[in-house]
Amino acid sequence: MSRRPGSTLLDWPTAVSAIPTPFLLVDVEAMERNIARAARLARGVGLRPHFKAHKCTRILERQLAAGGCSGVTCATAAEAKILAEAGFPDILVANEVVHPAALAELAAAAGRTSVTVAVDCEDHVNRLEATASEHRCRFGVLLDLDVGQGRCGMVPGSDTVLHVAQRVARSETLTLEGLMGYDGHAQHRGYRERTDITVRTGALLDVERRRLDAIGLSPRVVSGGGTGTLEPAADNSVLTEIQAGSYVLMDADYGRVGVPFGPALYCVATVISRRSAAEAVADAGLKALSAEDGMPVAVDPLIDVVGISDEHVTLRTDTASRLSVGDALALIPRHVDPTVNLHGTLHALHEDDRVERWAVDGRVDR
Amino acid sequence: MSRRPGSTLLDWPTAVSAIPTPFLLVDVEAMERNIARAARLARGVGLRPHFKAHKCTRILERQLAAGGCSGVTCATAAEAKILAEAGFPDILVANEVVHPAALAELAAAAGRTSVTVAVDCEDHVNRLEATASEHRCRFGVLLDLDVGQGRCGMVPGSDTVLHVAQRVARSETLTLEGLMGYDGHAQHRGYRERTDITVRTGALLDVERRRLDAIGLSPRVVSGGGTGTLEPAADNSVLTEIQAGSYVLMDADYGRVGVPFGPALYCVATVISRRSAAEAVADAGLKALSAEDGMPVAVDPLIDVVGISDEHVTLRTDTASRLSVGDALALIPRHVDPTVNLHGTLHALHEDDRVERWAVDGRVDR
After folding, report:
1. What is the pTM of this model?
2. What part of B 231-250 touches A (C-beta under 8 Å)?
3. pLDDT at B320 (0 to 100)
């Protein structure tokens, strides 16, 4: 933690030690530093902070309070509904919405605030139009472009882009707001690569912007970027907003590639078994930490996480580590979004040692 | 689904199609077949079904109703408390319990029913004894042996085993129930390997049993096994109970190694993007499917899951597949335990097309 560096992290306030492990601890001071830094870095462009990374409205409020935000981003219609009901304005669902129940959630959100959604084919436009008509609401639309990630999005330069743009422009219930090009393939690379990809993405988006200009459909919004490309994208004049989310709490994957933010989220575990000086087991497994991208990282440099199973992490420790059964262990999650999604609560540790419970209130039970 | 084979799974009842994706669907008929088959296979030994695989008391009730169960197994003290409060008798926590708050939960469970817990060092015994004394309750104890998995457990044949056994035997609040040796390293191998490891594990446990006999502390219980070793372990006369859990709902990892159970759990997603005849994207990602062991598997053999990110799976499809935006897609999770843990509800589809909501009520919010 920020005021509690060192290897053992055993000097936590009693309120933290009393929480049954495994649980997520937010270092509020470190989080606030990340929020302030992103706001500064993105000053020339504008942030549209992504809710999906933490799903916690308490955190999103702090991101907006830091200023420079054009609105909020989320990944699903269910999240949009939650955000609208919580009073957040100007919501972008940076994703295609297709299921009838999800479209109804989108309409519920649009009944409260401005809602914009991504499309990558005419079918999406038809569904949005039918929903708007049924629920008597309007939607903003961004044309989703695949700028290299290979997931959703139209092929830049294709006829489809202009065709869909014109289709949206003809609609009475939809407003063509602009373009979206999320460079997910750039996020977890080194600084040089992230910058190179950002420049190429910017060029692609600029060409699309001019193509829309040429048919009289100039985009007001060009949305893209993330935590990995926030720094280089802030110098990219094409984007009008950056959809970053992970920077607030951070994770080991972003820590590895050297983005300008510090760790603010820890999974706290208890050592439950120690067979030898070199081996220990703690009580946080796959139900507390997402591991598809690799192991969590122990804050203590004498401890390596060498395995993870449903309920356990397996540790190798230097013999100089005096880790014992019952000791607390702080782990930096490998991947923040799916890790927070495993928990209902974030335990927020303030500088004055107060611990607040922040609900992960964007989690939806299907 | 059992009555709905084939590639598209589009002939689901309307009640299923109305549920917003992604969600988990249980094929109740297939689940009941798995439960009946496990009960038959384990007839000579006895099952102690593991709650951690599904965390759903509705399912655990059905496992007990099939007969032949010596009690129930769970992974954490929090689960033990939930199970005791729900009225389940004779609970084994197949894990070491260390944190003071977890020990208090264990005591709460022991105030309602018989609770047994694993230990692998004297420290565990001391903590249990202090808890039993503070809360005026008793605990059963199993001596946890590392039979090859390399996680928790004492080294078989070591002095520690006898030392800890005698320490438990001297306690006035703890009862030495026997031995536990979970062969986690055997579970996901081919049949021959699973059988070989089961025989070796059985031999190790038999030696320990005799060592305890020799000091007058004969074990009443020898607990171990899982879904992968249920079949060979049922012929292993050393075990008195098998702690299997995944067999009820199954997953792609167990399906791959040919255990005698069929798929009963699906994650249902919606296709949200289709850029080409060969590429599609659906709306179930890492927040709906655990992927640390690899990708989920599409039921449709013409569809390969080639990528997964926070909110999406990326699909390659045969051109013969007529998958369109809006189509439902059924995926078999790669790993059942952490996948169910991502959801609050299992949607249980009965043979008569009724869909019930079963709560994943063993999930704990920390």
Report:
1. 0.96
2. none
3. 74
